[in-house]
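Look over this record as teaching material.
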Amino acid sequence: MLCGAILSLVLILEGSLSPSQAAGSDERGQTAARLSALYQSLPAPEGNAKTENTDYMLLDSLSAVYLSYDAKRLPGPKDWLTSRGTRVPVDALMASVAAISDAYREFGVDEAFAYEFAFRVQKEIVEALPADWEDYQKFFLPLLEKSGLHFPDGRILSDQRLLEGLRQVQQIVELYQEYDIPYLAGYSQENPKRIYIDRGLIAQSAAPFLIIHEVTEKLLIDALGPQDQLYVHTHQYAQRLERECVIASGLPWRQYQDVDMQREIKRAEDPQRVYKQTPADLDLTPYLEYKDVETLAKLRASAKAVPQGKQPGMKLGMIRPGILHVYFDSGLEMAKTLLRFQEFYESPEFRGKYFTLEQFINWHTEKNGKFDYYQAWGGEAGNGFNLPSRVLEPFFAGQFDPLSPREAGFLELFRHRRHADFYVIVTASNSGEEIKHEMAHALFHSVPGYKKEVLAILKAYRTGALERFLVEKYGYNVSVASDEAHAWIMTDTETLRKDGFDLRPLSKAADELKVVYGRYFQSFDTPIVTRDP
């Protein structure tokens, strides 16, 4: 991972300068002129070709970013003398890294992923100069490490880190695919976490790469603008990061870009196409920059307000990428809403089965002599629920129709997050410390390192008796017994004692689990209950 010291040492965004302000500095003006000289010998594209993946445009975009961002200097030479004899201003390269990494940190990705994205674009810039990436590493790696960045494997780039970062971006965004998007994909004017992909997209496997492109473009538009050719420059950076992700995924770039995407773009931009609905908050920067009057008119004529996915009595928030939290105003409403979702996931009788509410009520009443499920799970004692996103899919697919209004409302919260895996924890106003219990489940399912350590502790202390007790006493399915055991040991010891389970042999296990939990539970792991996401 990359060390947090970078935040206070190098590559820190100190503020933004408009191009006119930046050019007022003699030194910056001279550096910009030198950057321009690097690509003036290359053929300059014209018209719409300015958005093509050309070395000229990428280096032109590097100059534009340099004139808009100021980054602290690395210790060492002002210039990088490449093995091909080209002198490249170090400040310009570092401004590019600062712009991307800062934008992605604010977006919410881990710092390591933010810098991976930034250095991926840097690699594309280096190759466009042209220069050798290995040459760049030899020059910059010691300077970066001296300033606080650490690369455990001695390499600036990692395909694994890039793909993990790509996955985290998918978990952060809301993806809307029910609108007509003339340029194939786009983003909300107000919210960079709301991404649009044209409803007619055929190559659905391309969605993750389109998302990283659109997010990068939007983040840089917000960070750099306003300026001339804002979209042209941000598109260059977005295109290069998209390319790096495609290649790291093992796909041939030329097939992806020149065949698959060109087919999609041609379909989306068909002048005969009739737009049924376009998002009213679509950022129009690309269309305005191109002066695409005809398309702008169609967009405005077909614009529809975008539903916000809010539901009465429940609020959706993100605790961290991949872990979502739904807060209910009422514990009873929570229990009435979650019954079929949770029992489909955990019940020994109904796990993996499609069933009606009436069928469950009849079974529960026969088994317990009365139906007290809502009071037990949503009453004064307070409880919570947890489930992985895969549990929602049969509900989306209609296997549980007809849905109750409560169930339909809950499901709607996640309609635009189905493109990525996530884990949901659910609590209510009466849940109290239940959040810790539910977060333990979320960590167990979404953080491999946490799960590995937990399972090792459970094995060492032989928690089989507790797992059997949880299955028999509380009705959990055996498939979730280990997960439940670790959460109960840490957070519900008093309940276990009252119900007759002797926890004394597991006291040390509880202590060790709490230590592990404390290491993985971070300060931002707090449910959002007082504001809209």
Remarks:
- Residues 1-24, 528-533 have pLDDT under 50 and may be disordered.
- The CA atoms of residues 450 and 516 lie 7 Å apart.
